[in-house]
Amino acid sequence: MATPTLKPNVGVYTNPSHKLYIGEASPSLQEIESEQLLQSGEVVLEMKATGICGSDIHFWEHGRIGPTMVVEDEHILGHESSGIVVKVHPSVSHLKPGDRVAIEPTIPCAKCVPCLTGRYNGCEDVLFRSTPPVPGLLRRYIPISLVNTNEARQVHPAQWCFKLEGLSYEEGALLEPISVALAGIERAQLRLGDSLLICGAGPIGLVTLLCARAAGATPITITDIDTSRLEFAKKLVPSVNTFQIPLGGPDTTPQNLAKSINDSFYSTAGHPDVAIECTGIASSIATAVYASRFGGTVFVIGVGKDVVEMPFMACSVKEVDLKFQYRYANQWPKAIKLVKSGLLGDVKMLVSHRFTLEEAEKAFETVKDRTSKSIKVMITNE
Ligand SMILES: NC(=O)c1ccc[n+]([C@@H]2O[C@H](COP(=O)([O-])OP(=O)(O)OC[C@H]3O[C@@H](n4cnc5c(N)ncnc54)[C@H](O)[C@@H]3O)[C@@H](O)[C@H]2O)c1
Ligand SMILES: OC[C@H](O)C(O)[C@@H](O)CO
Ligand SMILES: [Zn+2]
Ligand SMILES: [Zn+2]
């Protein structure tokens, strides 16, 4: 690969005053250009595609997610990324300029019990790109290292980079939300022939739909308050049933909604076997619980308020298996195989808008503005 002309390193920041802006990022152009300034084992990645996640919008708009993830300083966003190797320290032999990789944004400690038992998403000392105070991936360059994790220099360990194997950069960036859905399906124990209810047709509900179809769930119904998202779901997976959750009106209690959903779409068995909740909204979780069969599973991926009122007795008398998810573990290799094989369908359909790094503000406004009808907004550099 011919040595590309490198540009100054910039990143997309938010701060405690809820500003969104482009600013200088680490490492500097001078550090990147001089291979001597790279440390042993390091390579530099030029980011090629980064998807904007709802949590990026949350950190920008509200400055926090829950009580512990709080923007207290200038903070780089982004954790759905892929890129290309542009510089390599002479000590590195397994990567060369031109190699294309996707980044898993988790940096676990590898020492605590969750790490040692394979559930490193529960790491007690985790660093997760874009969750404050760990700077995210939405910048032009990031150093990757085989031998150390130097957080002061914002180096990401090579262990958490996966070769793209022919996938496009955008598909590489989509591996992150796909990993969320795959982890959910794995822990919800969704099986071939299970009937499924997906609550919420945002990017997470939609990738869950693609993964659940591949896993053999049938029938599948997806809900949303927004008709345009349901129309998109139908375009993505024509066999899916869609159900619009009305805002207000006499029949909008979770019990009534659950009954309408079940009467419309689960008439054979009466109820879905599994519900995967992808909104984090209390009334939607309640609808999933009321729709559930005896011994059914309600699996909550959505996140929301610190305390949420739940239909406790409905869970109790139906022995509902109520489960939750926190990010993912061990999903990238599986996600790459699934996208590459075509089993998930055309995941690129999820990308509704593309912007350059310099247009990041417009990109973030597009995600926030529901009239834009965006699904997955990408910052690309291809
Ligand atoms: N657990 C995890 O590790 C994890 C990882 C990624 C995302 N998430 C969370 O998953 C959720 C979904 O993410 P997303 O990117 O798709 O978000 P999103 O906001 O784009 O999508 C949520 C969808 O839910 C719909 N909705 C709102 N109220 C509803 C209701 N009452 N019934 C049905 N639908 C309703 C919205 O119209 C929207 O289309 C968010 O809460 C996000 O923070 C969790
Ligand atoms: O995709 C991963 C999620 O966005 C993160 O867990 C975030 O919600 C909190 O760090
Ligand atoms: Zn995310
Ligand atoms: Zn750990």
From TrEMBL:
The record ties this protein, via SUPFAM superfamilies, to:
GroES-like, NAD(P)-binding Rossmann-fold domains
- Which reaction equation describes what this protein catalyses? L-arabinitol + NAD(+) = L-xylulose + NADH + H(+)
Asked whether the keyword Repressor is assigned, the reply is: no
Subunit details: Homotetramer.
* One Pfam family, short name: ADH_N
Q: Indicate what this protein is called per its UniProt record.
A: L-arabinitol 4-dehydrogenase
Entry keywords, A to Z: Metal-binding, NAD, Oxidoreductase, Zinc
Report the enzyme's class at the first EC level: oxidoreductase
**Is the keyword Cell membrane assigned to this protein?**
no
Q: Where is the Enoyl reductase (ER) domain?
A: 23-379
The organism is Arthrobotrys oligospora (strain ATCC 24927 / CBS 115.81 / DSM 1491)
